[in-house]
User: Which sequence fits this backbone?
């Protein structure tokens, strides 16, 4: 994978250079790009990552963090209040496009999502390697004790206690899917607040926890994420949704650096950055700056 | 002095300006405090609008009833203008301006990045919008806005208090400075008047003092010309005047001393000469008588010549006697004692009893004052004047002696109804041996009035005649009154010495 990435980066840099030459000839000033993000840690970090990358490429950027869920941020985008925001492909399809079909792969999910955006005047830039999906995690000792490897194995466990955010109970990518797809009918649902989830699992008050795959807590190997062989949880790779006219007008000058960044955002990289903010109390901007530095210096 | 005046005007102006400044500062503070109040009011209005935006939004998302959106629509129209008003009210404080800009951008974000998208969502999928509204950032944004408003208000309040304090401080400082200026002004005025006294009034008083001394005869009086200004010029001018005055006064004194000496010598000469002439004259008279007695028979026609010698001798004797009298009148010790002039006049009349009776005339003496002088010499004056009045009578002589007192001086008058004289002659008649008539007509040598003038002048007075032919004559003379203040006596002494 690495040699290919380098070639892509080199090509992107060359194209960016050409674009720069053309721009100086025309002397067209670069526009101000307004980036929005949703209201949780990963989105704050992503907003900073894309904003700093664009600034390095010479654009001016206004970053509006903390806007809200997909439904809201999509309305802000289509109303023209935003030029771009980082979106998860699966969420985009199910919540914005209203497409509840399960894609077989991350790539397929991305191409459906991109097609949806392009139909209405936007586009999706290159997706990230990471997918911030729903998942179920258990303590490693518990997995060993019950011989757990995938979600299907949970059927063997009696008196299962499942902790999750409240909405999990009514969602298809939640209790509903667990019953219908995996046939997991006998478990007790324990609703949890966002910050109280991992401590509850640590204290053995629950047996299984609904998590998001890029969460910082998962980076240190303290928890075991169960496999999802039947693809109950959708692929949630991330890609910037951006106005198509902007992407066309500034071409690789705009998209090159963003794509180069996105391709470096692996699950591991995202977990570490999330951990730095959520567990070590660092600022999203500082964490993002380190990462952008490591990308551009490569 | 112009400098001091300018400085005082400047200080007065400065003190006044400071007071005006203090007053205007206080007024400005009032305005600013009012402005702060207005800013808080405008901010409160804006905050209410934000709340009504949120309420409208929530009402609509909860119910789906378009009428619930009424406060949202009204708030959407109003908030731009309200922000503008608030901005203009805090335009003079950068930190508050930044605060208002922050509020504005946060309201914009609330409207554009939260409320409007949520409204759009609610129109399509109301239930989703409801769940988003519960978990979403709307409440957080509103809370942040309310915090910002609270901060804005408390800062504006603090600003108003600070403005008021600083205005109070400035104005009390300005008032203090104004008072200070006035006090300084008073001090400078005092210093200026002291300086005036010292540098103008005192030197002028010194010159005045020296002038008085000079006038009193102290020819050595001078002013030290210590300075190089107008006062110094005055002192120098005074000194040079005093110098020339002293020089001329010295010269005058010298001349009058010389005159006195030659006068004395002349009198002595006359006295000695007339005295020495008497002896040979007596011898001539004796020899003429012897010639008449012993050689009467041989004389015959020579008798006429001897008569001529006798007559000439008698005349020469008379002349010499009068000359002696005149010279004696100006010499010798002058008594200076109170003299009852009424008595003196009475003595003179007694001595003139013969001629009065002979003429059949009438001499009246009215009330006369007491004067200071020499009784013997003053009697001579009355004798001569009354004698003349009897002698130069046209008809039966009527003589009236009177006096009036003016201040320290008594003016005596001897008036007659005699032949009178030409007014042009009235001055010359006081010259020695001056006569208006022949000796055959009216006997006498013409020394009487000259003697009178000498005596009166010795007493420090003066004598003059007023007359016209056929109208009679009035002789008046002045004398110092006795028993009055000393200065009259002093001036009398001065007159005697001159």
Assistant:
């Amino acid at each position: 994978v690495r040699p290919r990435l380098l070639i892509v980066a080199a090509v992107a840099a060359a194209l960016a250079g050409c674009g720069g030459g053309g721009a100086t000839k025309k002397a067209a000033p670069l526009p101000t790009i307004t980036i929005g993000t949703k209201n949780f840690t990963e989105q704050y970090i992503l907003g900073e990552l894309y904003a700093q990358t664009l600034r390095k490429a010479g654009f001016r950027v206004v970053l509006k963090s903390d806007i809200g869920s997909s439904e809201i941020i999509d309305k802000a985008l289509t109303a023209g209040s935003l030029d771009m925001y980082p979106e998860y492909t699966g969420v985009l399809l199910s919540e914005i496009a209203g497409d509840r079909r399960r894609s077989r792969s991350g790539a397929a999910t991305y191409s459906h999502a991109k097609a949806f955006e392009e139909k209405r005047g936007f586009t999706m830039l290159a997706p990230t390697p990471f997918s911030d999906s729903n998942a179920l995690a258990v303590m490693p000792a518990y997995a060993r004790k019950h011989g757990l490897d995938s979600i299907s194995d949970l059927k063997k466990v009696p008196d299962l206690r499942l902790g999750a955010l409240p909405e999990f109970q009514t969602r298809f990518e939640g209790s509903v899917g667990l019953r219908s797809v995996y046939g997991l009918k006998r478990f007790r649902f324990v609703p949890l607040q966002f910050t109280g989830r991992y401590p509850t699992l640590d204290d053995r008050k629950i047996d299984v926890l609904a998590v998001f795959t890029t969460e910082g807590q998962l980076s240190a190997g303290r928890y075991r994420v169960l496999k999802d062989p039947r693809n109950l949880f959708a692929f949630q790779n991330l890609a910037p949704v951006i106005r198509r006219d902007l992407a066309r007008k500034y071409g690789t000058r705009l998209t090159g650096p963003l794509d180069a960044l996105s391709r470096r955002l692996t699950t591991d990289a995202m977990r570490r950055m999330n951990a730095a903010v959520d567990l070590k109390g660092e600022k999203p901007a500082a964490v993002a700056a380190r990462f952008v530095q490591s990308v551009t210096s490569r | 002095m112009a400098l001091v005046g300018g400085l005082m005007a400047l200080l007065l102006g400065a003190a006044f300006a400071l007071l005006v400044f203090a007053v205007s500062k206080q007024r400005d503070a009032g305005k600013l405090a009012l402005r702060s109040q207005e800013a808080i009011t405008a901010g409160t209005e804006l905050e209410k609008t934000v709340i009504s935006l949120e309420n409208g939004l929530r009402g609509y998302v909860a119910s789906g009833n378009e009428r619930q959106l009424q406060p949202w629509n009204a708030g959407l129209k109003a908030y731009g203008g309200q922000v503008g008003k608030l901005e203009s009210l805090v335009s003079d404080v950068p930190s508050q301006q930044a605060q208002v800009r922050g509020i504005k951008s946060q309201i914009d974000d609330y409207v554009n990045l939260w409320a409007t998208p949520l409204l759009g969502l609610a129109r399509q999928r109301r239930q989703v919008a409801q769940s988003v509204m519960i978990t979403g950032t709307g409440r957080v944004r509103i809370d942040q806005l309310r915090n910002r408003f609270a901060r804005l208000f408390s800062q504006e309040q603090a600003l108003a208090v600070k403005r008021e304090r600083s205005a109070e401080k400035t104005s009390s400082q300005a008032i203090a400075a104004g008072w200070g200026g006035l006090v300084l002004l008073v001090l400078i005025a005092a210093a200026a008047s002291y300086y005036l006294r010292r540098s103008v009034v005192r030197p002028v008083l010194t010159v005045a003092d020296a002038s008085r001394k000079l006038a009193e005869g102290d020819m050595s009086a001078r002013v030290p010309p210590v300075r190089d200004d107008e006062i110094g010029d005055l002192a120098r001018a005074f000194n040079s005047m005093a110098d020339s005055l002293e020089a001329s006064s010295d010269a005058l004194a010298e001349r009058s001393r010389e005159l006195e000496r030659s006068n004395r010598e002349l009198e002595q000469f006359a006295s000695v000469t007339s005295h020495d002439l008497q002896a040979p004259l007596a011898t001539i008279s004796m020899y003429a008588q012897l010639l008449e007695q012993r050689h009467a028979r041989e004389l015959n026609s020579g008798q006429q010549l001897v008569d001529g010698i006798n007559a000439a001798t008698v005349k020469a004797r008379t002349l010499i006697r009068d000359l002696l009298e005149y010279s004696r009148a100006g010499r010798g010790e002058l008594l200076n004692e109170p003299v009852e002039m009424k008595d003196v006049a009475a003595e003179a009349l007694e001595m003139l009893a013969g001629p009065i009776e002979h003429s059949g005339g009438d001499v009246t003496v009215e009330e006369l004052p007491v004067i200071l002088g020499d009784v013997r010499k003053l009697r001579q004056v009355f004798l001569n004047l009354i004698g003349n009045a009897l002698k130069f009578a046209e008809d039966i002589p009527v003589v009236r002696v009177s006096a009036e007192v003016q201040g320290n001086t008594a003016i005596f008058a001897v008036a007659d109804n005699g032949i009178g004289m030409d007014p042009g002659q009235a001055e010359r008649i006081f010259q020695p041996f001056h006569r208006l008539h022949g000796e055959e007509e009216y006997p006498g040598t013409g020394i009487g009035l000259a003697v009178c003038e000498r005596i009166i002048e010795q007493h420090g007075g003066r004598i003059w005649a007023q007359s016209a032919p056929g109208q009679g004559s009035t002789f008046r003379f002045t004398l110092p009154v006795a028993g009055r203040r000393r200065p009259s006596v002093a001036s009398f002494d001065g007159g005697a010495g001159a």
